[in-house]
Amino acid sequence: MNTEQTGTLTNGSRKPPHKRKRGWYAQSAVAFRWLHIYLSMLSFAALMFFAFTGLTLNHPTWFGAGEQTTRDATGELPLNLLNPTVDKLEIAEQLRSQHQLRGRVAEFEVDAYECMLVFKGPGYAADAFVTRESGQYTLSVTSTGMMAIMNDLHKGRDSGVAWSIVIDVSAIFMILVSLSGFGLLFFIKKRRAMGFLVAFLGTILLIAAWLAWVP
């Protein structure tokens, strides 16, 4: 038999073309399966969190997400922090320390008579108004339950740069999990046609729902 036609050498140093192709095919299938499984497991908690809070965001009264509590407080700050210049950092830190405030300082406005600063975090806000002449201030703190905090985390509201990166990474994982699952269909002959048909049908249904029901 002609070895050039079969793609093999008599010493066995080269595999037949069909075997090489089959080896690449099998390795690719294993790679996609590996990616899909372990990407899914790595991002499992994030996927469940954003899926669940996506549902509760659509129903804001579920699980007491609409409940909130408010507390008020008053006090006095040293005048040297307010006049002749306003020490924004020290004012914020003293208020944070005295009243166990959390979140970041989202706003800090100063005029000739008063300072106004706002602390914000997921499901949390604290507004302080400080009179520059006397140093006296009023404080109002509004906080919500865990469900409302989770909803704010889903939206990235007042959650900081680090959490924003977490949201981006989670979104990338969701894309990769979906693509690896889609790619895996190419290596499952018995399910390939039906899988692609279902994916196409799901896309059409999504577009139809958007066109039919979104004002």
TrEMBL record:
It comes from the Bacteria. This is PepSY-associated TM helix. Keywords: Membrane, Transmembrane, Transmembrane helix. It comes from Aureliella helgolandensis. The chain crosses the membrane at residues 30-52, 161-187, 194-213. Residues 1-13 have a biased composition (Polar residues). InterPro entries: PepSY_TM-like_2 (IPR032307). Residues 1-20 are annotated as: Disordered. Pfam families: PepSY_TM_like_2 (PF16357).
